[in-house]
Amino acid sequence: MTLRKFFGEFFTPLPFAKKALEYIERTLGKRWWTSGEYRLWDMAAGTGNLEYDLPQEALKYCYLSTLYQGDVEHLERLFPDAEIFQYNYLEDDVENLFITKRSLAAKNDNAYDLIWKMPEKLRNDLNNPKLKWIILINPPFATSQEAGLQGKSKEGVSDTKIRQRMHSEKLGEVSREVYTQFLYRIKHEFDNKKTYLGLFAPLKYIISNNDQKFRDNVFYSTFNKGFVFSSANFHGTSKSSHFPVSFIIWDINKEKKLENQSISLDVFNESVEKIDVKNLTLEHRNRFLNKWIKRPLATIKFPPFGSAITIKAENVDRRDRIAVNFLASLMCKGNECQNQQYTALLSGPYVSAGALSVTPENFEQAMVVFAARCIPANTWLNHVDQLQQPNRKLSQQFIVDCAVWSLFDSKNQTAALRNVKYEDKVYQIENHFFPFSISELRSWIINDKEIKSTLRGTKNSFVADWLLKQQISPPAKRVIDAAKKVYGFYFANLHRLRTPKFKIETYDAGLWQIRQALQDTKLGSDELAELKLCHDKLKEKLLRQLKIYGIIQ
């Protein structure tokens, strides 16, 4: 079982395997096997869960192949009427398949003298133009973690002959996925054959950014029907980080770009009860939200941040550059809902990959992107959903609401720091996202003389000036008013706080610093609770609008 888990092989839960057979019957008709015109091949049969509920009379039309001899012996006992054989679909006969394809294209029959590991009966059926095919398969979900032919975390798990061919066609990181390697060979093996593919797989091959070349050049079949359920239903998988597993029936040789199709999947719970319908948004990756925001060139060296107040200088591959007119760094790794945890606003460049400089030119876009990444609840069902570019021009009120919500969210970790040493320089780091004007601050009680002295000779932050120019909606105004109470309470009680612990030395401390300092001494709980309540109300409004603008599903 440990070996199978390493290779991403999980036994299909029998209730969902039975449901897949029902969907095949809905596509091909009940008792599809009685006509004798169909052949079924499961080339990752394992212990035969997918075929367990097939009637015995259908088995004589089935080919079941698997990697392990122990599985072959088990399948032979369970399905004595099926054609069963040990076969590595990603290694065996790969050269023969492509030699044969080239020979057929050249109208040369000499390729049939090749030595094959595939059973002769199966080869004959594959060459019979009268037969139709059903591919029923739950291939391994394993991924090698490196884009090259070797992976560090699962070394060799996807280093196959098929992967090498995919690399030669420059298909990119998708070749790391074992199940897409199966799809690559299936598409070539069943080219020009009437074939239905019933595939259990994650949704990445349909919607992922890294799979775009694969969709453009290899897999562009026509959707028929399907369903989706949580990966937590597979034995041995994580219950805390589950993701959607789909079963989709494709008309594999009826070619059509996925972006031109509408795909609706029935959603099943752990009891295989239909609870919803999921409509997939299929867009080219050029329409993803992370392609919408302008990314300015970062050329100026600056201390790299690992978190709100932590400078991280030890990374080998550290990112320590900011753009001209830098305001903050927007950490926005990836474009899927599952990357919500990799979202933050920092007062310096994020130390690793997956961030961009926020400047006055892209500030409003950055606030929309930040809100869109943080507001939707991350569930197993939307785990790999891609955030999309707006389907129409955004209203300024929506942009302002996004900005206000973002400024007072916990993932806004902008901060003010003094005398930060990095390499051979000392930096004074301003909080350009401090939300209130200097004139307003001067009317507040500030119970720390040194911090109060930092107000002298200062100007409004970028965000304070920006907010003064905007029309604020009532829900956003309630957030700002609640935030004023938090900030006012904080300034009035500075003498009671352990400010050095959170590196607070100037008036423009970030909300993260303020919240941590208050919670550290158990002060301001009522004010923080009121801010959260108003913040959550604005979130409800924005969630509806994000759906209207097509940014989230």
Kindly describe this structure.
This protein has 553 residues and is an alpha/beta fold. The protein folds into three domains: 2-282, Rossmann fold (3-Layer(aba) Sandwich); 289-412, no CATH class; 435-538, no CATH class. The chain has helices at 2-6, 14-28, 56-59, 69-78, 94-105, 120-126, 161-168, 178-189, 204-207, 212-217, 363-374, 396-407, 438-441, 449-453, 462-468, 474-492, 511-520, 525-548, and strands spanning 38-42, 62-66, 83-86, 132-137, 195-202, 221-230, 244-255, 263-268, 274-280, 300-301, 321-322, 328-332, 343-346, 355-358, 417-422, 425-429. The strands form four sheets. Strands 3-2-1-4-5-7-6-8-9 form a nine-stranded mixed beta sheet. Strands 13-12-14 form a three-stranded antiparallel beta sheet, with helices on one face. Strands 10-11 form a two-stranded antiparallel ribbon. A hairpin with a 2-residue loop joins strand 15 (417-422) and strand 16. Helix 11 packs across helix 12, helix 12 (396-407) runs parallel beside helix 16 (474-492) and helix 12 packs antiparallel against helix 18. The protein starts with a helix and ends in a 5-residue tail after the last helix. The model is unreliable at 1-9 and 145-156 (pLDDT under 50).
